[in-house]
């Protein structure tokens, strides 16, 4: 494997780490008119990467799901924030957004008009922020990373709603200094349902050695949130949010809901909520609602995500049909790297039971919330779906015993060795991958006993070399009855083992209690 292919296989899909230059003033221009041509080239490259592990007939019949040509990305950032040049300042630009370009070794400026990949809400927010009177550090000589809050007007009354014309300029200057003080980057998260979450990231050198929950000497509250300084930021953020809302609605996003979050090292302030709520309408008539927390993984291309969910639902039904033909037991799905439960919620009605495994606490909690919001646990029985908080590589036998079908959506590097072994125990595998090279490596591992029967390619990241692939892999018929794990399949071992240890624990607790009583009597 050549060096660049190794980088593409193992490293996260961020600008500068996979050979993909960021968009912007220094990068390649986005040619919307060439989208169809670029997609054909990308599909051809993906098929070339998979041809050694996927049959030619499956490659030819692969389902291709294109992206919206513009406004497809519902996540942006983190985008670095910097001061504009004097010429740009004269045009009414107060700040610039940029991404680091490793090839040019400089920041590539992001103009939402010239980079039309972001959703309308995000594009409007970017443009609105660029023109807000936000004063970044350096514009005020006495402000720097180590400066105290007193370098800006911390009197909360100066940023309260005051409609008098003679104070409007002072108020703008006050909240603009507070929002800009220490501001280094911003992230944006929008939804198909019209919601927008903006996270402003700050740097303050004084917080480097501060423990979580502690306050600085000059802060007058038990916590940063309750201090007058924290309240001042929230008051300024309210002004910022109001202007942002005006800009977004002026762009045509009516009825939008905007939430603003400020992040510092070991501290955070929230104006509104720290999540968005997305809704996806599927082909089968269901409308699914998802709780997506701030700063956590979710698919940036919402319309392509709907295509992926529809494809997975169809493939899951076919996998269940195949399993019922070869097995007498009812289908149980094991899902590894389940994240916030997007796939879990969509697929749960197809199975008697789903066991979703996720190690990230916040995502696991989001998955539980999404199951509850979509009434999943009441579809078949009270324990139709359960979320297991664990590393996919460290799950115990009881978690996967009785499962014949597995869904995996691993990180960019693909499956680790232990997870491969777990996956290889199943009869049907649904595999969603953001990296065709890692997918090819895992399919090579499965080649001896499995065959790929279906392939889909989703253009989640238009105008880049990246895409998302999904395959359904099934065990070769001759291998099904001979597979050593099948003796335990369909049994209730996964119930008996936890029950045994529960009873053993209860007996041990009873024995300890009796021992303590005897000692007390002897005393």
Automatic annotation (TrEMBL):
Cross-referenced InterPro entries: SAM-dependent_MTases_sf (IPR029063), TrmA_MeTrfase (IPR011869), U5_MeTrfase_fam (IPR010280)
Keywords (A to Z) from UniProt: Membrane, Methyltransferase, S-adenosyl-L-methionine, Transferase, Transmembrane, Transmembrane helix, tRNA processing
SUPFAM superfamilies, alphabetized: S-adenosyl-L-methionine-dependent methyltransferases
Protein name per UniProt: tRNA (Uracil-5-)-methyltransferase
Pfam families membership: tRNA_U5-meth_tr
Protein species of origin: Durusdinium trenchii
Active site (UniProt): 434
Superkingdom to which the source organism belongs: Eukaryota
Organism ancestry: Eukaryota, Sar, Alveolata, Dinophyceae, Suessiales
Cell membrane listed as a keyword: no
Region (Disordered): 1-24
Binding site for S-adenosyl-L-methionine: 358, 409
PROSITE patterns noted in UniProt: SAM_MT_RNA_M5U
TM region(s), chain numbering: 493-511
Family classification: Belongs to the class I-like SAM-binding methyltransferase superfamily. RNA M5U methyltransferase family.
């Amino acid at each position: 494997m050549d060096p660049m292919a190794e980088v593409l296989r193992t490293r996260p899909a961020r600008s500068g780490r996979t050979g993909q230059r960021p968009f912007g003033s220094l990068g390649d221009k986005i040619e919307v008119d060439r989208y169809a041509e670029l997609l054909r080239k990308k599909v051809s490259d993906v098929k070339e990467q998979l041809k050694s592990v996927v049959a030619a007939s499956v490659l030819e019949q692969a389902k291709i799901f294109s992206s919206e040509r513009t406004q497809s990305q519902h996540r942006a950032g983190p985008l670095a924030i910097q001061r504009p040049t004097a010429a740009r300042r004269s045009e009414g630009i107060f700040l610039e957004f940029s991404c680091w370009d490793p090839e040019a070794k400089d920041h590539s400026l992001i103009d939402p008009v010239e980079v039309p990949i972001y959703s309308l809400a995000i594009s409007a927010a970017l443009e609105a922020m660029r023109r807000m009177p936000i004063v970044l550090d350096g514009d005020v000589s006495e402000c720097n990373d180590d400066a105290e809050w007193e370098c800006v007007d911390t009197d909360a009354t100066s940023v309260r709603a005051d409609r008098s014309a003679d104070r409007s300029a002072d108020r703008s200057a006050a909240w603009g200094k507070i929002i800009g003080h220490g501001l280094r980057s911003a992230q944006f998260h929008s939804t198909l349902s019209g919601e927008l979450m903006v996270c402003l990231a700050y740097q303050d050198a004084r917080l480097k050695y501060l423990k979580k929950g502690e306050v600085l000497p000059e802060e007058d509250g038990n916590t940063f949130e309750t201090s007058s300084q924290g309240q001042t930021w929230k008051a300024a953020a309210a002004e910022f949010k109001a202007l942002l809302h005006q800009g977004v609605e002026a762009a045509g996003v009516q009825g939008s809901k905007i939430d603003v979050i400020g992040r510092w090292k070991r501290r955070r302030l929230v104006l509104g909520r720290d999540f968005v709520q997305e809704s996806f309408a599927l082909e089968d008539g269901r409308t699914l609602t998802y709780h997506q927390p701030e700063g956590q993984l979710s698919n940036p291309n919402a319309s392509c995500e709907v295509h992926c969910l529809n494809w997975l639902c169809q493939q899951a039904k076919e996998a269940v049909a195949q399993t019922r033909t070869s097995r007498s037991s009812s289908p149980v799905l094991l899902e590894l790297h389940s994240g916030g439960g997007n796939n879990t919620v969509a697929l749960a009605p197809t199975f008697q039971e789903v066991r979703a495994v996720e190690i990230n606490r916040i995502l696991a909690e989001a998955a539980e919330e999404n199951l509850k919001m979509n009434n999943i646990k009441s579809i078949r029985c009270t324990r139709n779906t359960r979320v297991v908080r664990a590393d996919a590589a460290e799950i115990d036998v009881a978690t996967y015993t009785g499962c014949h079908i597995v869904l995996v959506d691993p990180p960019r590097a693909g499956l680790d060795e232990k997870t491969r072994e777990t996956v290889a125990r199943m009869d049907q595998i649904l595999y969603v991958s953001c990296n065709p090279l890692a997918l090819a490596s895992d399919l090579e591992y499965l080649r001896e006993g499995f065959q790929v029967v279906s392939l889909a390619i989703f253009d989640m990241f238009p105008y880049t070399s990246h895409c998302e692939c999904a395959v359904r892999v099934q065990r070769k018929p001759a291998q099904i009855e001979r597979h050593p794990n099948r003796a335990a399949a369909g049994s209730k071992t996964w119930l008996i083992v936890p029950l045994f240890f529960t009873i053993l624990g209860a007996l041990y607790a009873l024995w300890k209690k009796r021992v303590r009583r005897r000692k007390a009597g002897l005393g």
